[in-house]
Amino acid sequence: MTKIAEEFLIKADEKAFDLGHRKTINHNIGKYNKAVEIGLSKFENLENSKKKAHVIKWRVMENLDKFLPEFEANFQKRGGKVIWANDAEEAQKEILNIITKAGGKTVIKSKSMTTEEIHINDFLEKNNIESLESDLGEFIVQLLGQPPYHIVTPAMHLSKEEIAKLFHEKFGTPLDFTPQQLTQKARELLRDKYLNADIGISGGNFLIADTGSIALTENEGNARLCTTFPKIHIAIVGIEKVIPSMADLDLFWPLLASHGTGQNLTVYNTILSGPKRGLETDGPEEMYVILLDNGRTNLLAQKDQRQGLYCIRCGACLNACPVYKNIGGHAYNTTYSGPIGSIITPHLKGMKDFKHLSYASSLCGKCSEVCPVKIDIHKMLLLNRRDAAANHDNTKVEEIGWKIWKLGMLKRSRMDMLSGKIKSFFLKSMFAKIWGKYRSMPVIAPKSFSKLWEERNKNSKTG
Q1: Is the same domain home to 31 and 166?
Q2: Cα torsion angle, 172, 177, 181, 187, sign
């Protein structure tokens, strides 16, 4: 077992039995689930919408080599610049080059999972550049020195009392401040940062190929401020986020909003098509889009599993997953947690180190059921397990154990060779450490059913 897998088991064990954590998560996810149920009811035919989204994403992934250059050409026509980054290190280097060339010292960021993926805040801090999160949830976890807990709601694991305590310690606000007062305080702290930051950094929910635009969807307006006031705007977007046409937003924006927060549409929806031009008064003087691979082509090469790239990052599978709801987002130790993280991370960061995530599932299928683009998530988990076994990424002990089990299961006489006492010994001495920490191990009957049946038939014949 790798060190990463061991840490996962330790963290998962701690969180699963932390009743305070479970209460907060179940409360917060419960509120989202109610909102999402109402939001989804607004679709005239939800199943057809999901099927259509699945087909569009399938077409994009099968023709990514055509759609990405189309986006690049159209974006450049409008004065934007495109940079291709193979991995996190390349992306970091390119971002630093842009900031250094401009003499920048301060960065204001909107919420972006790709920037978390390349650890841009830590990287910029090491290079003496201030990088501040402007999304309220991201701002809170940045103050705590933590990564986001959830794809959509970064501070979902915190209660309002814990956030009030944090603001009291950092900014001297009263402990009894309401969520509205805490939000107002954050606004006051961030307002000058928007106006004075040298660089604005964002992600991108969608890349629109036919117009060369990036689409952003949000609820706080901070992304608009990050991409409007600074003179330079850098957007870091995964290569899988491309969609063919502006018209496709009519489908994808409502699907993303309804599955993520239960809204028909989020409050702010923005389409950016390069830097300001001509007589335009708003917008940056320079705009860059960094197209990030960082392991995505590894997943694209897997014909059976490239469905994982269809994800639009709504977070619905996290809210539905019984494992996520018990162990929380930080236990995964990855940028993308929950079911979707479990299927894509082994391909993005290495099967050997992250195969354990594909085993952290009950295979109940709820994640596949709620996915707005109909990714067969639970099937992908099984395919990852298949690949881990085929590539011998499992430990030798595990491989030998399964070979012995298979050998025994293939023949009845082999199964009956071990008596009930021997089986009980193995359960108590070996498997109790893995399975028996929080449960009583079953007692094996002295004789198996087949042995009792054989003896019964033998006695009836002799009788």
Answers
A1: no
A2: positive
Same domain, 281 and 202: yes
Token duo for residue 414: 């082999």
- 354 neighbors 346 (Cβ within 8 angstroms): yes
How many residues are listed for the chain in this entry? 463
Query: What is the token pair recorded at 451?
Result: 């042995």
pLDDT digits (tens, 9 = 90+) for 281-326: 889 999 999 999 999 999 999 999 999 999 999 999 999 999 999 9
| Average model confidence (pLDDT) across the chain | 93
The single-letter DSSP state of residue 149 is: S
Q: CA nearest 207: which of 294, 152, 289? A: 289
Pairwise CA distance, residues 317 & 36, whole Å: 12
- On whether residue 95 sits in a domain, the answer given is yes
Residue 120: CB partners within 8 Å, gap ≥ 6? Answer: 91, 92, 95, 109, 131, 201, 236
Specify whether the CB–CB gap between 32 and 262 falls below 8 A.
Answer: yes
- Calpha distance 6→128 (Å, rounded): 34
Domain presence at residue 62: yes
